[in-house]
Amino acid sequence: MLRLTRLYSMTIPKDKLKYIPTNGTYPKGFKVGSVSCQVKKNGNPDLSLIYSSYNCNAAGVFTTNKFKAAPVIIDRDNLQSKLNQNFNSIIINSGCANAVTGNGGLNDAREIINYTDKKLGNNVESISNTLTMSTGVIGQRLQMDKIKNGIDQIVTQLDSNHEHWLNCAKGIMTTDTFPKLISKSFQYNNITYNIAGLVKGAGMICPNMATLLGLIITDAPIEHQTLQNLLTNSVNKSFNCISVDGDMSTNDTILSLSNGQSGGEIITENGNLELYELFEKNYNELAIELAKLVVRDGEGATKFITINIKNAKNDLEAQKAANSISNSALVKTAMFGKDANWGRILCAIGYSNIEVNPSTTNVSFIPTDGSKELKLLVNGEPQIVDETRASEILELPDLQIDIDLGLPGDGQCQFWTCDLSHDYVTINGDYRS
Amino acid sequence: MLRLTRLYSMTIPKDKLKYIPTNGTYPKGFKVGSVSCQVKKNGNPDLSLIYSSYNCNAAGVFTTNKFKAAPVIIDRDNLQSKLNQNFNSIIINSGCANAVTGNGGLNDAREIINYTDKKLGNNVESISNTLTMSTGVIGQRLQMDKIKNGIDQIVTQLDSNHEHWLNCAKGIMTTDTFPKLISKSFQYNNITYNIAGLVKGAGMICPNMATLLGLIITDAPIEHQTLQNLLTNSVNKSFNCISVDGDMSTNDTILSLSNGQSGGEIITENGNLELYELFEKNYNELAIELAKLVVRDGEGATKFITINIKNAKNDLEAQKAANSISNSALVKTAMFGKDANWGRILCAIGYSNIEVNPSTTNVSFIPTDGSKELKLLVNGEPQIVDETRASEILELPDLQIDIDLGLPGDGQCQFWTCDLSHDYVTINGDYRS
């Protein structure tokens, strides 16, 4: 493991080393890499490129923030214009978000993708084969000279090995304390399908760091509309089910590429259902694992909290309740303080604007060491809580909170969040300096 | 001023002494007081009573949280049943919120008002003349013996002087660092009208402390439906325009009483408009001053921030934008860190789900020492910001942020909030112990 920490100039916290893979199997036909353009003042890698020698189908899910960064606008338009087809690369810079930069910023983003096309020798008809993402401080223009120098270098240094994929994940980091990379393979009819995922985002969804960026890359031959639907649905169960601080960025983007180099039949929602569902399962699992890594690295977080809601009116209402709990500063500080203050959980449900029946509501802490559930509220009646037992449960770094709303409708949601600590305040009180 | 700090066993922070009045003129015909029932472990006053020897019209605005505390349910029902008429007292306990306490809690709240009626010698027909409020830890039953002993004492100790009003404000405090009391008088046609306001709420709107409680008491003869409309409208421009942490309590309640002892004509929306508008102006001003005191005492707050939104699509959208900025952990920590990170402000507007046009949006810091405005964003174009100047402005304890959305519609809102500090995390990580 020591080798890994030396790989980066940044010191990775010891308790995070276990989340960094030491090897992986990656989608065939892709080469990746990262370089330092010196946009980041500390000299860490700040430009990453993912390139397929074969044309890819592509999909994207973007922030709904009304102030959209330039790369968000460009990617969304290009995906639409080319009907999610005929892309082969994604170029990502970190350190500057190219957000709220007006027309100049849009031109910069266009120049980046065109310059990348040129350097990759892409055969472009009218619209670029390259997608782009930016993350970092907003309201500042990109230092285009540095970025272009970086592109000149990066195209000469691409490779498909584990080290390159890990460095690629490193190149998209901002306040993240560790690179977030997951790879996954599965077989069907003697064909091996590979998926790789990269993500960045420490203060979830926040303007300056322009979190969250995510990439899901596969060699499976996914039909283009199916890829878009897969991505949209899996984001809804993964990246839309996590929260660090509730802020939503100008740059949030998840992109997906598939180049078909695994071979095998085309995967579509309307074709071989067994294959489709197997692929969907693996794709969704990977998206959820990536999302959980973001929470694991939540700014200043000391606790990883899983919230299970069941028997809500419907799934959407379950998600609203979980989101409200996850964003409550009072719940999050109580968890940081290891205080079994379940009233705050209940209260956050109460103002989430969903249907509740106080007398059918149940709240429990589920210890993550496998010991017995601690019931806090049963059918609206507060239980006499053994505070010593509660403290033991809250001493564990991971916590699960189960909420049964007891309504007909079977709505459910699993959601992940972290606590709110002194360090969150320190990190975010002083981000730009 | 020293006298005041000695009045309470709690030490009041020196910088808060200026918010505590040393005298006041109070509504005629009301007597008030507070005692310690020992529900609060520190022995501070925890039971307050406001009593009018004359029947009052009454109005209430209550939390919209789905988990409503027992006193909220009882008051709302009783106000409705008696058409906002024929009340004469409000009994408030602090230290225990009587929330999520099931039917037992509802019975406790009923017993409190009935017992108060009896001790005051109220001539009750079927529904109590007393309203009630509770604030404190939730999920615990009231210690009724202590409360009843307290009621026995308090009815013998009522008075109408300044000290008693101030102690009454003290008796409703939980994590507040100072009692919040404002009185106001004005004249019309040789008649003097008096209004007094009391409020508690430090972690704004939060489940355990069951913030916010507010009381607006007047001797003006306000017609009962007019009083309810006045209260509803003024809450919308005051208590609904503040935020400390965005959580909304199970107990939030604002009550208003008017006993007509000023004399003069009945004040109604359909009567003497000049008098009505004068009264409305004074009533609204008092509500806004009370609301601002809550922000001044925001848990751990080091900054008082005024947010002005103008040229939104409509007033509601302006309020949504202001609320979103006020609740952003990223904006609040940046303000604590004195970081002129305007991107976070913009971003919070961007996800507030209102209509915006990036290219007509303007953001400025308005220094509260009267010096020149600092433009951060002009028609969507980031300005070159003098960071030294920005730091000077952010060193001031008060900050004003002006946002012009540049849309037709003339929607506007003034909103007040505070920063998010290390101390907020400390206070709320460990509230119950």
UniProtKB/TrEMBL annotation, chains A, B:
Q: Which residues bind substrate?
A: T174, K200, T211, E299, N428, S433
Query: Any idea which UniProt keywords this protein has?
Result: Acyltransferase, Amino-acid biosynthesis, Arginine biosynthesis, Autocatalytic cleavage, Mitochondrion, Multifunctional enzyme, Transferase
**Is Kinase found in the keyword set?**
no
One MF annotation (Gene Ontology) recorded for this entry: L-glutamate N-acetyltransferase activity
PTM per Swiss-Prot/TrEMBL: The alpha and beta chains are autoproteolytically processed from a single precursor protein within the mitochondrion.
- The residues annotated as the active site are T211 (nucleophile)
Query: Does this entry carry the keyword Mitochondrion?
Result: yes
SUPFAM superfamilies the UniProt entry points to: DmpA/ArgJ-like
Site feature: Cleavage: A210, T211
Q: Which GO terms describe its cellular component?
A: mitochondrial matrix
| Record site feature (Involved in the stabilization of negative charge on the oxyanion by the formation of the oxyanion hole), residues | T135, G136
Provide the protein's localization: Mitochondrion matrix
Q: Copy the pathway line from the protein's UniProt record.
A: Amino-acid biosynthesis; L-arginine biosynthesis; L-ornithine and N-acetyl-L-glutamate from L-glutamate and N(2)-acetyl-L-ornithine (cyclic): step 1/1; Amino-acid biosynthesis; L-arginine biosynthesis; N(2)-acetyl-L-ornithine from L-glutamate: step 1/4
Q: Which reaction does it catalyse?
A: N(2)-acetyl-L-ornithine + L-glutamate = N-acetyl-L-glutamate + L-ornithine; L-glutamate + acetyl-CoA = N-acetyl-L-glutamate + CoA + H(+)
InterPro entries documented for this protein: Arg_biosynth_ArgJ, ArgJ-like_dom_sf, ArgJ_beta_C
Q: Which GO terms describe its biological process?
A: L-arginine biosynthetic process; ornithine biosynthetic process
Which top-rank group of organisms is this from?
A: Eukaryota
Location (main, coarse)? mitochondrion
Q: What is its EC number?
A: 2.3.1.35, 2.3.1.1
Quaternary arrangement and interactors, per the entry? Heterodimer of an alpha and a beta chain.
The family annotation for this protein states: Belongs to the ArgJ family.
What does the UniProt function comment say about this protein?
Answer: Catalyzes two activities which are involved in the cyclic version of arginine biosynthesis: the synthesis of acetylglutamate from glutamate and acetyl-CoA, and of ornithine by transacetylation between acetylornithine and glutamate.
Name the chain's protein.
Arginine biosynthesis bifunctional protein ArgJ, mitochondrial
